[in-house]
Amino acid sequence: MKFTYAVGATPIDADEAAGLIPSHISTQSDLNTWEEANILQGAAWAQRQKKRELLKEGFVRDLHKQMFNRTWRWAGTFRASNKNIGVDWAHVSVRLNNLLANTQYQMSHAIFEADELAVRFHHQLVWIHPFPNGNGRHARLLADTLVVRLGRKRFSWGAHSLLTGGVLRQQYLEALRAADIGEYERLLAFARC
User: Fold this and answer.
1) What mean pLDDT do residues 3-10 have?
2) 13 pLDDT band (50/70/90 cuts)?
3) What's the pTM?
4) How many separate domains does the chain show?
């Protein structure tokens, strides 16, 4: 299968592509549909984890695994190569655990209100890019789960799929780039539009 990528998406390497589980998939559209069904199962799993701590490496890995376990053999496994985005692959675990600890501190000291805390967490998780693929979708679902735990409604993230190219995906990427320089307003607005 030849993979196609939307603007700003992370290409997977040949070893990662070999981890595709379903043998019937032959087009990018087939893959997108299959992954979407798997992600919905992951989202349902996340909703059932009411007593589990979200801001732990084990939960981060388990959520990714639940979102992609029927699609990729490497689901829930940190990447072992560098990508077009993200920290050096050898630093993923350290950077992730720093983010989790910082976010726990920010929560316990009410540094940011719930929406901003979750959006900042999402941005930093995307920047770390822990997995070979699915990082944006994973970070959005984890931020959604976090903000709900903080007593707010789930984010809408533009209210449509960000998987394919288009204006909505471009707005999301531009909001992420603004957050890269410390300007979170656009990402906060996008998360609730």
Assistant:
1) 66
2) confident
3) 0.93
4) 1
